[in-house]
Write a structure and sequence with these properties.
single chain; 173 residues; Nonspecific Lipid-transfer Protein, Chain A; five-stranded mixed sheet; 41% helix
Length: 173
């Protein structure tokens, strides 16, 4: 297949390209949404997917630190911190100790391990602002997880589903 004919939204862009951006309508909608409910959803996912993977020394270093993930083309940011047991949502107040930002396509490529964070950073498609040591800790922790976060999340959700009661009749039709 001729790569020039491929739909660019279906392939991972190279470092020389820009990632596909969300449509302007979605971006405008994202900018109008309140931030805190999105942060609640973000920490729910982090607690399912990432919390079980965190070593004790990382948990200690994250204690009370204000983290922000910004999805640039969606116009949203998720603020959260680690309380010693779990990730908790925060109001978007003040400057975060660490802010990580990229467009939605690059965030997804990172989670799927289709892109390397260093490559995106040096291509100016991933930004990290704030505490450099904390940024390296987060990056190295994510790099140490053996499989893509999307697969870790899938496995975590399957484990959770085992605890749900099965309705009479035995399943979904």
């Amino acid at each position: 297949m001729n790569p020039n004919l491929m739909n660019t939204s279906l392939r991972t862009p190279t470092t020389q390209e820009t990632a596909p951006q969300l449509p302007a309508l979605l971006s405008a909608l994202g900018r109008r949404l309140p931030a805190y409910p999105g942060s609640l959803l973000c920490v729910a996912a982090l607690n399912i997917v990432l919390r079980p993977q965190l070593p004790d020394d990382v948990r200690t270093c994250l204690q009370g630190r204000h983290l922000r993930v910004r999805v640039t083309d969606a116009g949203v940011a998720f603020d959260f911190s680690w309380d010693g047991q779990r990730f908790t949502a925060r109001k978007a107040d003040g400057v975060a100790d660490l802010e990580i930002g990229a467009c939605a396509a690059d965030m997804l490529a990172l989670a799927r391990r289709q892109q390397d964070p260093d490559t995106l950073f040096f291509a100016r498609r991933l930004s990290m602002e704030g505490d450099t040591e904390l940024g390296l800790l987060v990056k190295n922790t994510l790099d140490a997880i053996d499989m893509p976060l999307t697969e870790v999340g899938k496995q975590a959700l399957l484990r959770l589903l085992k605890f749900l009661p099965v309705p009479n009749g035995g399943g979904v039709r």
